[in-house]
Amino acid sequence: MLRYAIVDDTCTPAQTQRLAATGIDYIQLRAKHLPAGQLASLARRILADIAAVPSAPTKLLINTRADVALATAAHGVHLTSSPNELTPAQIRTLYRALPTPYSLLPTPCTSLSCHTLADVHRAHTLAADLILFGPIFEKRIAGELIQPGIGLQALEAAVRAAQGTPVLALGGITERNTHACLEAGAAGIAAIRLFA
User: Fold this and answer.
1) Share of the chain above pLDDT 90, in %
2) How far apart (Å, rounded) are the C-alpha atoms in residues 55 and 60?
3) pLDDT (0 to 100) of residue 142
4) Model pTM score
């Protein structure tokens, strides 16, 4: 099962190292409000925190900021489903064009947010490495419904539509409902609160 944690600028070195030590596969840094320089500094710190954990498999992806991912030699980029975003192929081309030693990095990982089956088809066609699909379960804050979930049947349909591209369930994921997501065919889970 793939595990994908989404963190922001409140992520501490201890949290990063704990995630890496548990073998989490991906950490997505999502801090859209930060200027590029501050985001790059944070990304470098997170990369150093991951590197401090021997044999950690964890890869860092930067949310929507290919410039920051390239500048910090992060392991990849998370893209939204907007057609105005760079494509996974464009991200790979940018990484290959980097000067040595950055050009020696493994092929960058690209994950795409998808909310509809059309988004999933597009992500598969664009050769995304991972699809984050959701929200699977509803989101409530203080008992108030903030966002309805699309459900496990939609997740099953997304897995079929992805034609082999790994689909990670996103939205309202807990330890209790993780198994249901895997039973629906998800390759893993993506979450904020579960990994906080």
Assistant:
1) 87
2) 15
3) 82
4) 0.95
Q: How far is CA 94 from CA 4, 46, 72, 124, 195, in A?
A: 24, 22, 13, 20, 31
Cα distance between the two ends of the chain: 18
Q: At 89, is the secondary structure helix, strand, or coil? A: helix
Q: What is the pLDDT of residues 12-52, one digit of tens each?
A: 999 999 999 999 999 999 999 999 999 999 999 999 999 99
What is the residue-wise DSSP string for 85-115?
SPPHHHHHHHHHTSPTTGGGSPPPEEEEEE-
The residue segments making up the domain with residue 188 are: 2-195
Burial of 92 (0-12, 13-18, 19+ CB in 10 A): middle
CATH of the domain at 63: 3.20.20.70
Amino acid, single-letter form, for residue 31? A
Domain count, the chain: 1
Phi, psi of 112 (to 5 degrees): -125, 135
Q: What is the DSSP letter of 151?
A: -
Q: Are 22 and 30 in contact (CB under 8 A)?
A: no
- With CA atoms as reference, report the closest residue to 147 among 180, 129, 172: 172
Pairing of strands 144-147, 139-141: antiparallel
